[in-house]
Design a protein that fits this description.
binds NADPH dihydro-nicotinamide-adenine-dinucleotide phosphate; 41% helix; 9 strands; 7-stranded parallel sheet; 17% strand; Rossmann fold; 10 helices; alpha/beta
Length: 249
């Protein structure tokens, strides 16, 4: 039996939104597997907390305060990088849920500029910062099941996450010959600090709708992310990996 152990020693990753939730878990898994990670996040305070939590990884950790909607901010963070990039995880994202009838232009603009244009800004800026000689360059975009199937109250979010899938596939076609793979992960409902605070009955009701009878953990997404970033996934390009317990079946 082959036992696959992911080894990211001497690999350099950037995780946007890496100071909280799913991004924090992805960062932790890369660090555990020996990788270097630059955590790009919005809040200075969250970055400081992450730095403290990951202190034992020493120089493996780099942090940069960044607003992915702001190109100057992204350029500044890119210029602070201590190494060339191997792996980019575009994870930062927000929600501004409202029914379409109630959704205002500001709700639309905020979600599109973070969850769609943010990925354009970051990836465009970093393209030249990737390790040119590497044949193991990875772009992993965090989309959502909502981008595949739509969702009540999420016109803005579903549009952005569907757009992420279109970008992912296009980059798969354009960048494949340059040593990149580009893939997306479509998480289902994942437990984060926010969702854990919801009433138990509500969470149980939601879990009952999932064929594997549980909600997702941040670790489920991080595991998928490490797999797509690994050498072993070098022939997987332009795909969307659903990590949702089969909720959409
Ligand atoms: P969290 O809110 O827990 O974490 C997102 C992180 O991104 C936060 O640290 C946030 O900072 C940061 N961020 C937000 N806006 C910006 C910005 N403009 N620039 C830089 N950083 C920013 O979210 P989750 O961990 O739940 O979600 C992570 C990704 O997974 C998102 O793309 C989300 O859409 C996707 N996803 C999540 C699901 C879930 O059930 N949780 C399901 C499907 C997809 P701050 O807190 O300061 O705003």
């Amino acid at each position: 039996m082959t036992n696959i152990n992911f080894d990211f020693k001497n690999k350099n990753a950037i995780v946007t939104g890496g100071a909280a939730g799913i991004g924090f878990q992805i960062t932790q898994k890369f660090l555990e597997a020996g990788g270097n990670v630059s955590i790009w996040d919005y809040s200075e305070q969250a970055l400081q907390t992450a730095k403290t939590e990951f202190a034992k990884y020493g120089a493996q950790v780099h942090v940069a305060q960044v607003d992915v909607t702001n190109r100057e901010s992204v350029a500044k963070a890119a210029s602070s990088l201590p190494w060339a990039v191997d792996i980019l995880v575009n994870n930062a994202g927000i929600t501004r849920d409202k029914s379409f009838a109630k959704m205002g232009p500001e709700d639309w603009d905020a979600v599109i500029s973070t969850n769609l244009t943010g990925l354009f800004n970051v990836t465009k800026t970093l393209l030249e910062k990737f390790n040119a000689s590497s044949n193991h360059k990875r772009i992993i975009n965090i989309s959502s099941v909502v981008g595949l199937y739509g969702n009540f109250g999420q016109t803005n979010y579903a549009a952005a996450k569907a757009g992420v899938i279109g970008m992912t596939k296009t980059w798969g076609k354009e960048l494949g010959r340059k040593g990149f793979t580009s893939n997306a992960i479509a998480p289902g409902f994942i437990m984060t600090a926010m969702t854990k605070a919801m009433p138990k009955e509500v969470l149980e009701g939601m879990a009952a709708k999932v064929p594997v009878t549980r909600l997702g953990e941040t670790e489920d997404i991080a595991n998928a992310c490490l797999f797509l970033a690994s050498e072993q996934a070098s022939y997987i390009n332009g795909t969307v990996l659903s990590v949702d317990g089969g909720i959409v079946l």
